[in-house]
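We give its fold:
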Amino acid sequence: MSDTSFTTAFTVDQSPEAAFAAIIDPRAWWSGEFEGGTKKLGDVFSYRYQEFHYSKQVVTELVPNKRVAWQVVEGTLSFVEDKTEWVGTTIMFDIGMKGGRTEVVFTHQGIAPAVECYDTCSDAWTSLIQGSLRQLIESGKTELIELAAPAA
């Protein structure tokens, strides 16, 4: 485990192209409200999950079938003291081959164990990445996971 980020990974039998297509369509695997685009370099999108989370992100890297990165430029978390913990963090997806399978490595750089939201955020990311995203890549469809309300 890194002391500067949260990382989780999985492998699937589908192609890097299928993984990339799923990643750049977070509306298909995140529950919540979206505005804006997510599929072109420089796209700006906002995401809101109930009253607990709001963030605005910029697509800063888009290497087809290899890498996606989003920079968080605005954010509010209602359940922690420093409501702007996500601002300045980077959400990255690296796609590659491992043992003949497609590997997806997810990293949220800047969300580390020392950050107050780490436990809640890492649990939510694990559900989204290991659950919804993986399922979408494997089957082409997913059931959106409703995340648990953060502990007050």
Observations:
- The beta strands are 5-12, 33-36, 44-49, 53-63, 67-77, 90-98, 101-109.
